[in-house]
Specification:
Layout: H1 2-17, H2 21-48, H3 51-60, H4 64-81, H5 87-107, H6 115-130, H7 133-146
Helix pairs in contact: 2-4, 2-6, 4-5, 5-6
Amino acid sequence: MASTTTAAAASTVDVTRRPSRRLDLTVRVFQILLALAFAIPSAAPKLIGHWSAAESFDRIGWGDWLMYTVGALELAGAIALVIPILSSASATALTGLMIGAFVTQMTVFDGQYALTPLLFAVPLVVIAWTRRHHNEELLALVLRRRV
């Protein structure tokens, strides 16, 4: 009897942690839209070395390696954003990247486009929070492979 009660309580806790169907669908749409935004207009110019991206990164003063690194991080984050078990971790990492972009916009570019990374960060934080239940699954998977 006690094991049945414990199992029922565990499943109840698990169900309450997951988002509602409407919220789940809304967040999934944001995930897809943000993944497309990070992959195509953001990462692609950096990865192909487009003159506009190269010019911006030259102004930062760290050279092409930073441009290619940021482009690779954005593309990896975009792909991981649509993989359920990686979605929360990806949204968190991309939020960190957006914080870095905001600081760069404020310090190097005099705040010209500082609002853009913040506008991307808001839905990323919502995704990270809504998909946080995947973090336990990801951690369990990583720890199981390590052993």
